[in-house]
Design brief:
Layout: H1 4-7, H2 15-28, H3 36-49, E1 57-61, H4 67-74, E2 78-83, H5 86-99, E3 103-107, E4 120-126, H6 135-144, E5 146-156, H7 162-173, H8 190-197, E6 201-214, H9 218-226, H10 230-242, H11 244-259, E7 262-263, E8 266-278
Parallel strand pairs: 1-2, 1-4, 2-3, 4-5
Antiparallel strand pairs: 5-8, 6-8, 7-8
Helix pairs in contact: 2-10, 3-4, 7-11, 9-11, 10-11
């Protein structure tokens, strides 16, 4: 799959349409906090994969409830973290206070990072930057604030595994967004990641890992996700009144898909980690 044409739509999005898209994201992800327990062990895997050490200046992009940022801070890194959604940052601050670590939290846009060029030794994102609508813009920003020789590392959902398939299923039922957006799960394809990083980096490395999410049934994982996963929240909102039959059909498909990946009361969620050094 070639990302170039997908990443560069024919016309740039109108500012008001782009702002509307991001506002929808901000609202949708506001309810993610209950899922942080699932993403906490993978946060440790990402921090380890990025080879974070004490004293490094680190930025966590689209930090959510702060599980990766706090993990890095507990190792002694000097951490800053940014997210679009204030509700998640409020939870991140609570988590940092409990862990007794100092993290500089800031509300902001991953496509407009409020930091200086080359300010960080490490730039991370766990299942976050992949939802920015313009891959070239968000990647350009992450690399801009990273020093030469610094490490960029991120975790993403591959399109061929459970979460990627679920997001693609959601997009097939979702009304058209206000702007043209490449599927976020393209960030889980190593070939596309290589294309996007291009000559800006060297020593690209990948690692595939598995997250197992406890659940009693496919219906349980769906109901819980409908309360906490941003795009799914917006899908249910969009279809509940205007197209209840389509919502029912979506739920049946979702349950069948989830059932394929559930074993021993856990949903298998494969993910990809990427690491590279800025040239």
């Amino acid at each position: 799959m070639d990302s170039k044409a997908i990443d560069r739509p024919g016309t740039a999005p109108a500012p008001e349409a782009l702002a509307k898209f991001k506002e929808n994201q901000k609202q949708g992800w506001a309810h993610f906090a209950p899922l942080e327990a699932n993403t906490t062990p993978p946060a440790a895997q990402l921090v380890k994969f990025a080879r974070v050490t004490a004293g490094q200046r680190l930025l966590d992009v689209a930090c959510g409830t702060g599980v990766a940022a706090i993990t890095a801070a507990r190792l002694g890194a000097k951490v800053r973290a940014l997210d679009l959604t204030p509700e998640l940052l409020a939870r991140a601050r609570e988590n940092a206070a409990i862990a007794d670590v100092d993290v500089d939290w800031r509300q902001g846009d991953a496509e407009e990072l409020p930091y200086q060029d080359g300010e960080f030794d490490v730039v991370l994102s766990q299942f976050g930057h992949m939802f920015a609508p313009r891959p070239d813009v968000v990647l350009g920003e992450m690399l801009r604030v990273l020093k030469p020789g610094g490490t960029i590392a991120f975790s993403t959902w591959p399109p061929e595994h459970s979460v990627g398939k679920m997001f693609l299923l959601m997009s097939s039922y979702m009304p058209p967004p206000p702007i043209e957006v490449p599927p976020p799960v393209l960030w889980g394809d190593p070939n596309i990641v290589r294309q996007r990083l291009g000559g800006a980096v060297k020593e690209i490395a990948f690692s595939r890992e598995v997250m197992r999410v406890p659940t009693l049934s496919p219906e349980h994982i769906r109901v819980n996700s409908e309360k906490s996963v941003g795009p799914l929240i917006k899908l249910v909102e969009a279809l509940s009144e205007k197209a209840p039959d389509r919502l029912a059909a979506f739920r049946r498909e979702y349950d069948r898909l989830a059932a394929e990946y559930i074993e021993d009361n856990a949903l298998r969620q494969d993910y990809l980690m990427t690491r590279a050094l800025k040239v």
